[in-house]
Write a structure and sequence with these properties.
The protein is an all-alpha fold. Helices cover 80% and strands 0% of the residues.
Length: 153
């Protein structure tokens, strides 16, 4: 099965090729799409949960969610561009995360209010939310399939 032989990803690709009649490239693309979608949903959920601790008003939660969807798409585009240009994944991730943080901090400072009517702590929120979601996503990227095996799935 090429690149993924002997891995869970390889088993998924193999099953999609055999059972659904997809090409290996099509199966890999489908897996990557669902991985991206899962990461985006998880990031938005994590950052909204953290936002609850900062007591933002209702409108701000929508702004945070939409901003995260946009920045996650941008981050993934930067990561894919890094792969296409055969650049370092770490370099692309660092540049992407810096752009994500700066963009989110700017939007939150301008558009988000807390329940007390102020925009205090929006930069602090952006730092904490991005640090937590990045840490969790790195752990899942590094150990994700090991975690799945741990739970017997």
């Amino acid at each position: 099965m090429g690149l993924y032989e002997g891995t869970i990803e390889g088993d998924l690709v193999h099953n999609l090729v055999e059972d659904w009649g997809l090409s290996e490239n099509g199966a890999t693309l489908l897996i990557n799409f669902f991985f991206f979608l899962g990461c985006m949903i998880a990031t938005v959920a994590i950052e909204l949960l953290i936002a609850l601790c900062f007591r933002f008003n209702k409108k701000s939660y929508g702004i945070i969610a939409l901003t995260n969807v946009i920045t996650q798409c941008t981050l993934n585009a930067i990561m894919w561009l890094g792969l296409i240009l055969e650049s370092s994944e770490i370099f692309a991730l660092i540049i992407g995360e810096i752009l994500v943080f700066v963009s989110e901090a700017f939007v939150y400072k301008k558009k988000c209010l807390r329940k007390d009517g102020t925009n205090k702590l929006t930069i602090t929120y952006a730092i904490i939310a991005n640090a937590v979601s990045l840490t969790i996503s790195l752990l899942v990227s590094l150990y994700g399939f090991d975690i799945i095996h741990f739970f017997g799935v």
